[in-house]
């Protein structure tokens, strides 16, 4: 359960950006979370709901987009989504795979109200 | 129902939420690199035997190398005291509740480290999930899995295994008494991370410890010649 620490880091970025933009309120927060980020979206939502109280994000909706694990084989060039955690190329059996997507933990977009 | 004069605005941020931790970790990495210090971050569940392994590593490395240890726990100074009893300088970080170490906690201790050092071991808070998301500026990451925990753990807790350089299977002396399938544990760990170096060890009998020490010493040599 490190989601509270993550949400605390999220709010540092969020509130600073809202300040720079001169926002009155934050109404929406969109995250991209990789399947292999080590973060559970539901736990993130619970922590977000607790953290947003008494901030300008009090009314904000949190949207979490989960990104699948995508790899590219460095031997044969096979590029696909991996459904299991078996890091072996289904095409040529090489274990030399590069992770293209799936480890992200990104604050992608925010919706603000400004004057 | 927009209030008068208030507009909504979409802002693309595209910021890594763990970016500030990564930045501090990169600073630690470059300082340790300048000091030619190899750092190793140990992760595992509570009770897998990280501290006892470090005691055994201290006994074997100390005659030939200079080492220090940073201990992470939620509470108490106990682990650092155990390491100091082996004649090795040790610092205790008590997180006061946090389930993992963060780079900023390690950064605070760096100025206190001895000038001349070969190895810095960092024992993370006992937890197989959260520490995996936080880089500490380490050169090597090691995950411990003790045999009583079960051979199915790599697939259940993938990130600790996919981000590690070595897997230390601990308490191997208990295998005869447990339904622990060593081949399955190794196979599933390697499926997650084919580059993982695996050591089957027992801190009680000493099994596998010489190989592990050799791996650390070779890693130090490679690190300094890189």
Span of the ends, CA to CA of chain B? 62 Å
Largest sheet of chain A: 3 strands, mixed
- The order of strands across the largest sheet of chain A is 2-1-6
Number of H/I helices of chain A: 2
Rg of chain B (CA only): 20 Å
Helix content of chain A: 25-40%
Total beta-strand segments of chain A: 6
End-to-end gap of chain A:
38 Å
Number of strands of chain B: 8
Hey, which two chains have the biggest interface? Answer: A-B, 36 and 35 residues
The CATH class name of the domain at 3-67 and 102-114 in chain A reads Alpha Beta
Q: What is the beta-strand fraction of chain B?
A: 15-25%
User: Could you say how many structural domains of chain B there are in total?
Assistant: 1
Q: Any low-confidence stretches of chain A, pLDDT <50, length ≥5?
A: none
**Could you give the order of the helices and strands of chain A?**
HEHEEEEE
Give the mean pLDDT of chain A.
94
General description of the model:
The complex is a heterodimer of chains A (115) and B (226). Chain A has 115 residues and is α+β, with helices and mostly antiparallel strands. Chain A has a domain at 3-67 and 102-114: hypothetical protein PF0899 fold (2-Layer Sandwich), CATH 3.30.2320.50. Chain A is built from two helices and six strands; from the N terminus they run H-E-H-E-E-E-E-E. Chain A has helices at residues 3-21, 41-51, and strands spanning 23-34, 61-67, 70-73, 79-81, 97-101, 105-114. In chain A, the strands form two sheets. A three-stranded mixed beta sheet of chain A has the order 2-1-6. In chain A, helix 1 (3-21) packs across helix 2 (41-51). Chain A is elongated and about 55 Å long. The mean pLDDT of chain A is 94. Chain B is globular and about 75 Å long. Chain B has a single domain, classed as Rossmann fold (3-Layer(aba) Sandwich). Chain B starts with 6 loop residues before the first strand and ends with a helix. Chain B has a seven-stranded parallel beta sheet, sandwiched between helices. Chain B is of the alpha/beta class and 226 residues long. Chain B has helices spanning 19-34, 50-61, 78-84, 103-109, 153-156, 158-162, 182-192, 209-225, and strands at 7-16, 38-43, 67-73, 90-94, 119-123, 140-146, 166-170, 197-200. The model of chain B has no long low-confidence stretch (mean pLDDT 95). Chain B contains eight helices and eight strands; from the N terminus they run βαβαβαβαββααβαβα. In chain B, helix 3 links the parallel strand 3 (67-73) and strand 4 (90-94). Chain A binds chain B through residues 1-2, 5-6, 9-10, 12-13, 17, 21, 23-24, 27, 31, 36-39, 85-88, 95-96, 104-115, and chain B through 5-21, 98-100, 102, 129-130, 132-134, 155, 158-159, 162, 191-195.
